[in-house]
Amino acid sequence: MHSHTISRRDFLAVSGAGAVLCGAAAGKKVPVGLELFSVRGELAKDDMGTVRAVARMGYQVVEFYAPYFTWTAEHAREMRNLMDDAGIRCHSTHNDAQSFTAEGLPKAIELNHILGSRYVVLASAGRISGLEGWKKVAGQLAEASAKLKPEGLRTGYHNHQLEFTPVEGKRPMEVLAANTPADVMLQLDVGTCVEVGSDPVAWIRANPGRIHSIHCKDWSPDPDKAYRVLFGEGIAPWKAVFAAAESVGGVEYYLIEQEGSRFSEMETAQRCLDTWKKVKT
């Protein structure tokens, strides 16, 4: 893994932030949710029934991804009513670039308000060329943040492998973190960070108070398994990730995510939650 060092001043800042966050979150259990891409096949067939089933499993939160943007306001209200009845919440949505355009943002705001979401997350920046390209992405996030803030919403960015792969000697995630306001969430996908050799714990500690949610996706170096391992079966250092997220990162909720596994989508979701309960005790 890449080495990651921080200065004494940064260490003191991290430590101080961690103490504040610990005090604020004392006795508070961080909820666990499901990124619904994990059950995308079922969701496409019956989104209402799928969310109801996920709530019945014991998940406390869901994160809707790009297809939600095609909903009408009426359908979003029906989904919100179902979630309220089932006792499950939506804290964030995953969005493609369309949601961040001048034409798309008003609809994203409307749907996220209805769903009770806090964060409108850019799921991917697509193909970006050079560090200047990443600085432009940071500028887009900053602009979106300024527009969302008066609406009581915040923006965020979700990483994949690309953002932790050095470009011109620097990781794009470092560029995004340095060139966006502190209220832009840096949603950490652990598996993709680990795959390219970056240390997720060091990243959390280097960005105190900005890791408000984490995609708990595991990864195995065995090419026959890779992302098809269930949560807890790969090499991600979950105990250390949770400790850093809760003492320093400012995590508000976790999201289990699966790209696929040897089991059906719903059984995969249930098995991951069962393991989660053992790992988090």
Question: Could you please describe the fold and organization of this structure?
Answer:
The structure is a single chain. The protein is of the alpha/beta class and 281 residues long. The chain has helices at residues 8-24, 40-45, 47-57, 73-86, 105-115, 130-148, 172-178, 190-195, 200-206, 238-249, 265-279, and strands at residues 32-35, 61-64, 89-95, 119-122, 154-158, 185-189, 213-216, 253-256. It has an 8-stranded parallel β-barrel, surrounded by 5 helices. β4 (119-122), α6 and β5 form a beta-alpha-beta unit. The longest helix has 19 residues, at 130-148. The relative contact order is 0.14. The model is unreliable at 1-27 (pLDDT under 50).
Keywords:
alpha/beta; 11 helices; globular
What's the short story on this structure?
This protein is an alpha/beta fold and 281 residues long. The protein is built from eleven helices and eight strands. α4 packs parallel to α5 (105-115), α6 (130-148) runs parallel beside α7 and α9 (200-206) runs parallel beside α10.
